Amino acid sequence: MKKVGLYFGTFNPIHVGHLVIANHMVEFSDLDEVWFVITPQSPFKTKLSLLDDHHRYQMVFEAVQEYPKLKPSKIEFNLPQPNYTVNTLVHLDEEYGASHQFSLIMGEDNLKSFHKWKNYEAILENHELFVYPRISEGELEHQFKNHPKIHRVDAPIMEISSTFIRKQHKAGKNVRPLLPDAVWSYMDEMNFYR
Q1: Residue 98: its H or E element
Q2: Rounded CA separation 4/82 (Å)
């Protein structure tokens, strides 16, 4: 049974912080692989700053080329909108359930609001959570404090945001060190976020 951690995000763009966390999860937990699940553009919310799905997929694809345990996933591109994690998990279990066991990867900030997720109890009943540290406000719900399915992984705290990268790139700052080389090249060549 292959243990796969699902790392959800818009990855707009994917940056070194995402790679550091995903790689840490796969190297320092019992996960065999981490899949970057790229959240599609919602038909209900058209954010001008959100790049087209296939461009964000391509950047993730470029970023993980040299990391055999990290994979890009476009699984949510063909699922009904809006995307709820619980539905994506059901879909993945139907497709790969016999050979794969799926877990969620999330930052501590997301765990603090996890009780607001659709069907979060069902998610926890059937899947493990791997949580990485984030600097964030608010208290953790008591029910999540010593939960047997919630594993804290002592990954480095990465305070890099895609929003910051887009904004500074547009302002003409050099953001290249924050991006994997292949992502920088693709972004630059396509003239994204200018």
Answers
A1: none
A2: 23
